[in-house]
Amino acid sequence: MTDRPLTALIKPERAPLSLAEYEHAGGYAGLRRALTLTPAEVTTEVTKSTLRGRGGAGFPTGNKWSLVPAVDGRKYVVVNADEMEPGTMKDRLLLEGNPHQTVEGAIITAYAVGAQTAYIFLRWGYQLAEARVAQAIADAYAAGYLGERILGTDFSLQLYLHMSAGRYMCGEETALLNALEGKRANPRSKPPFPPVSGLFGRPTIVNNAETVSNVPHILRNGWEWFTKLSSGADGGTKLFGASGRVRTPGVWERPMGTPLREIFADCAGGMAPGYAFRALLPGGASTGFLTEDAFDTPLDFTSVEKAGSRLGTGTMIVLDDKTCPVGMQYSLQRFFARESCGWCTPCREGLPWVARTLEALEAGDGEARDLDVLDAHVHGLAMGNTFCALAPGAMAPLESALKLFRADFERHISEKRCPWT
Amino acid sequence: MLTEHEQHEIRAQMALYEQPAAVVPEALKLVQARRGWVADEDVRDVAAFLGVSTAEVESIATFYSLIYRRPVGRHVILLCDSVSCWIMGFRDLRAHLTARLGIGMGETTPDGRYTLFPAVCLGACELAPAMLVDGILHGNLTPERIDEILAGYE
Fold it and tell me: HSE of A205 in the Cβ direction (CA atoms, 13 Å)?
């Protein structure tokens, strides 16, 4: 038994395992076991495993499943593989490297919640993943893991691959559901939450691709095994990543709760030659900066929050001494401004204002009051003032940058230029 | 007019969703495959075929990044400008590409060969800086590497 279940069968230098090879390595054994249990028992197994959503919010997966009402009728499962958080490249590894694992997880999820139809919502531009997932789905149909009366049981499931037409907003689960319905990807008002009323108004479970990929292993090896993969309260492993001026950027599977230092220093090899560390965003663009004094933080949902940030997607973006923190912030905020869906006014109007202000600062056209404008937006676009989490997420790196790099912001104003150019 | 092939493909997609209007983005992608972009008449044709309003189809066509409502070149370059690529050299690559092609972001070369777009994070941050050319991912880019890649396109 391996302690890196998600990536054990992924060999970057070769094509993913064929169906026969995947089965030989224990693939679809999790589904076979699940089908000997009742759907409620499968959900209980996942709840006890302490699996939490790997898309960024960390909601307990089994609890989410149990919110689906136990009534007959159409239900859906959607695998959220719309990986578009800047600095995040973990789901691509799973979908390109071992697509059957995600397909098997989707089938078990559908069985647990009583869904008849499932979709894998894949981001645009993942051309290789698209081909490999489509092949895995076709092979699973041919082998009787999908379609009518799966493996001779009464359980039937149709699984379809949906390619997004491209928009960051689609990662938000209710916006994703609107996109699947062929509409603009605006978020929906909650409640009702998707497990009660989701796709086409039906009960729907939306789970991140990494979350779903854990499910076959939990069913195959049991919930206790899963909890023991980590030493903390959140069970299992996590895909961690690093990008920026580190020696070896990449993605690695490690126990949930692995100290930040181990990912940064051992996996990523520390800073690239000639660059010094300043700070990092621990889990994608929507998380706040951490500095070296947080290097002993275990990377799990609770500990990273205590350290003042969020685990997010677990893929860190590293800021070095030769990169302007104001310019980096401009890149981040312009992204969020461009990707705002425009549905609510604070986000639609506020984010472009923030981006324009940062652009002016970076160009040497900043004024002292610009920092007040940025501070005001940090509060004005906080959670509760906007329709969804996009703008509050955007403010996380800005708020921490304004604290950590205040002197750098002020130098842009007093010197009327970017000190890094 | 939608071609027979397009009508067939759109109908096949309709079978995958509870409501037919769900295939509007798919239908737009299908008509875009014909000539690389979606013209006004395409929007009207898709709306008529699916029984939804033209305004509805237009609102969807203009929402999603990969639906082009203006003509594009034979090859579309999507250069990532999100944070990891920004740190790893996006600005140098942008300067190189715009100078080499003689166009700005969002423009098409006069010979119709390339359209250059900025793109949000391509999910290839360990290979930053990165770009897609006609959907094919290229990472660890330098100006020299870009020259080599573009030499392969007509």
Answer: 33
Number of H helices and number of E strands within chain B? 7, 4
Q: Where in the sequence is the domain holding A214, given as residue range(s)?
A: 19-228
Structural domains counted in chain A: 3
Task: Verify that A28 and A50 share a domain, yes or no.
Answer: yes
| Interface confidence (ipTM) of the complex | 0.96
Domain finish residue from A277, A293, A320: A320
What contacts B3, CB < 8 A, 6 or more positions away?
Answer: B34
Are B46 and B99 members of one domain? Answer: no
pLDDT in tens, A108-142: 999 999 999 999 999 988 999 999 999 999 999 99
Distance of CA A241 to the CA centre of its chain: 12
- What are the pLDDT digits (tens) for A349-395? 999 999 999 999 999 999 999 999 999 999 999 999 999 999 999 99
Q: Which stretches of chain B sit within 8 Å of chain A by CB? A: 16-19, 21-26, 28-29, 59-60, 63-67, 78, 81-84, 86-88, 90, 119-128, 132, 135-137
Are B72 and B37 in contact by the 8 Å Cβ rule? The answer is yes
